[in-house]
Amino acid sequence: MKYALVPLVLANLWLSVPLHAQDEGLPTSVTFSKAEPEDEGELSAGDQTKLLSVMGDLFAAEPLTPQQEQRLPAASAVAADVLPAGFYGKMMSDMMDSIMSPLLAMMNGPLGAQALIERKVGLGGDEFPQLSDEESTQVVALLDPAASERADVLRNRMTTWMSGFFTKLEEPMRDGLSRAYAVRFDEGELAQIQQFFATPTGGKYASESMAIFADPQVMSAMMQSVPMMMESLPEMTAQMESAMANLPPERSYEDLSGSERQRLASLLNLSEAELRERMEAAAAAQEANEDD
């Protein structure tokens, strides 16, 4: 279970949302509807459904063998001990609260001040003032007197949503665990696990085996690994670029033959003129982004 990036996502959410809003069997093609100009970049509800269906097919598991099916009842008993009813939603809610509380507390200080100054005053980069923690707190109080209440609303809504979402996810999660145990353990091993879980120590281990990932000690260790991971990103990027250096570049409109242009336009439900216009505009936008 990897939760180390959750705070980064939440921080990005806070900083970017305006204050008033704060092989076989796999599909070989997917056809999306032609987007209107004003909806460019957004998927329709139908397209989202298609995409979700494709994702489900991509991650479909192999069916259980007859032997594994026979082990499923024993495996389900193990899964029920590891993931009892009502546990998953509470665990995820508690974990989210432990992540968000310190993160949102920072939003009343330097991080919050920086976001507000950039958004409300328009200062950034070299123009950004050097502020002490006390000065940052004053800036937040001046520009958003309700910052603390806003943080409380965000934390409460997120933890409530997480609890509800993972409560709904609990049954399919338990089913997945059951099937995984049936694949990974034979009858004898499953029986031994159940015997262990029937002991006081085993029962405690079963009930804590997933909750321990939300323990403050584990969360603290994971958070401490984030800077190391971030520092390694440039090296990873360089390695990826080096590994792909000998590959041919992606093709532009000019690289396509007449028949290829015709086929691509047909696949995308565009005329050839629209295809050319859109590909040239996309190339220009990509070039501009690379120059920035």
Write a brief caption for the model:
This protein has 292 residues and is an all-alpha fold.
* Strand elements, count: 0
How would you sum up the major sheet?
none
Helix/strand-derived category reads mainly alpha
What is the overall shape?
flat
Name the beta content range.
Answer: under 5%
Helicity range of the residues?
Answer: 55-70%
- The radius of gyration computed from the alpha-carbon positions, rounded to a whole number of angstroms, is 26 Å
Average pLDDT, all residues: 80
Low-confidence stretches: 1-38
Signal peptide: 1-21
Protein name: DUF2059 domain-containing protein
Keywords: Signal
Organism: Parapontixanthobacter aurantiacus
Please characterize this protein's 3D structure.
- The chain has 292 residues and is mostly helical.
- The protein folds into two domains: 1-17 and 60-226, no CATH class; 256-292.
- Helices cover 69% and strands 0% of the residues.
- It has helices spanning 6-16, 45-58, 66-82, 87-106, 110-121, 133-143, 147-184, 187-197, 200-208, 216-243, 258-267, 272-291.
- Helix 3 (66-82) runs antiparallel to helix 7 (147-184).
- Mean pLDDT is 80; it is low at 1-38.
